[in-house]
Amino acid sequence: MINLQTLAIYDTEISGLIPAELGLCTELRDLYLHMNRLTGPILHELGRLLKLTSLFLWGNSLTGSIPGDLSNCSSLIVLDVSANELSGEIPKELGLTLLLYNHIPNWNLQQLLQSNQNLDWETRYEIGVGSAQGLCNTPKI
């Protein structure tokens, strides 16, 4: 399993903690564990996955905060931890290396821009607050 590059166990209703042993799969590029019943924290061990590009943990019952160790995953492009019970802020260590897609249906920006659908006020508020926080936490160059 050490050479594993993609692990997709989503929408299977598995429960329990994320196994710390996943941190040993150093070739892992894509980890899809969304829409399950996972609990507990996002493990610091995931920061060992230096080649990780996509991490989907949304739709679980994960708690705690996003570990700063994920900043070790320098190839990480997509991190989706929405619809969990997380607390705290996005760690500053992650900087601007992540592009978070929280409000784009079907991951299709063009579809969103061309649709006649209006965003509700709650979504507009979340986007505005998230954008402001991102601007406040940008690293100085």
UniProtKB/TrEMBL annotation:
The keyword Transferase applies. It comes from the Eukaryota. Keywords: Kinase, Serine/threonine-protein kinase, Transferase. GO terms for molecular function: protein serine/threonine kinase activity. The keyword Transferase applies. Pfam families: LRR_1 (PF00560). InterPro entries: Leu-rich_rpt, LRR-RLK, LRR_dom_sf. Its EC number is 2.7.11.1. PANTHER family: LRR RECEPTOR-LIKE SERINE_THREONINE-PROTEIN KINASE FLS2 (PTHR48054:SF82), RECEPTOR KINASE-LIKE PROTEIN XA21 (PTHR48054). This is Non-specific serine/threonine protein kinase. It comes from Helianthus annuus (Common sunflower). The lineage of its organism: Eukaryota, Viridiplantae, Streptophyta, Embryophyta, Tracheophyta.
